[in-house]
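Lecture 7, part 2: worked example. A protein chain together with S-adenosylmethionine.
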Amino acid sequence: MASSHFTVLLNESIDWLSVRSGGLYIDATLGAGGHSEEILKRGGKLLAFELDEGMMRRSYERLEKFCPTLVKSNFTHIKKVSIESGFSQVDGILFDLGISMLHYTDLGRGFSFKKADERLDMRLDDKVGVDAAFVINQFPQEVLKNIFESVLASREAAKAAKKIVSVRVVSQFEKVSDLARLFPENAAEIFLAIRMAVNDELGAIQKGLSGGFELLKVGGRLAVISFHSTEHKLVTKIFEDLEKNGTAVVLTKKPVFPSSEEIETNPASRSAQLRVIEKI
Ligand SMILES: C[S@@+](CC[C@H](N)C(=O)[O-])C[C@H]1O[C@@H](n2cnc3c(N)ncnc32)[C@H](O)[C@@H]1O
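Predicted complex, written out as structure tokens:
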């Protein structure tokens, strides 16, 4: 049976976006469509981006009665695609970063270190770019070390890269278990770092947030939900820079966290943080 995805910080993010009937909104990360559905229910006009074709199809069924515009595109192209779709001067944009629970549980692309037999793919768009197996089997040790440094201390990152290189000269990495068994203590971090590299997630956040910010009208809001410290730091820095150059004000002086009720229902939400800026 297919699993489900719990939408994180649903009411908090939509309230902070101050969604109003007839306003223009962009959901940069459609996923299972929970945030998009709430924007549409409140009468917002919606354009949504999703990189993963399977996720797009699932959400289309959920949302088609509202007739939103859904595009299969990387949110790095947010500015160009939105303008072409008639969404310039928008009231609000949401980024709910990372991947959906369905990626871990149902999609079979090696995102979870617990799915031993899945192939090491980890591409969100499985038609472009190099997959996780290629990164692990082919990238130079120094590059692997840099990749792991996005989530691990420098010494640990160097050790992880060295371990991979010493194993791959004997046998190539193909399945999740080939990688996970080498890292019994920090498999979650190792998998996260590889996934971020495969999808250039940090580069995409930089491009997506700056392109998105340019689409906002004065008074428009940009809300971002992030899930781990590398993302939290990057979003904080981008928002601080926009505030420093006098174009935005950070509305969430402290990040918004999920309530204890939400964490109880959906433990995976516990690391989520919401930050919001307004264009001035
Ligand atoms: C955390 S989920 C979003 C969940 C969604 N808010 C909901 O309520 O169901 C993030 C989604 O963004 C998509 N995604 C990640 N990076 C993307 C990118 N650069 N461009 C477009 N979509 C992306 C992922 O495929 C995933 O489905």
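The mean pLDDT is 95. The chain has two domains: 10-102+202-279, 125-198. Keep this in mind for problem set question 3.
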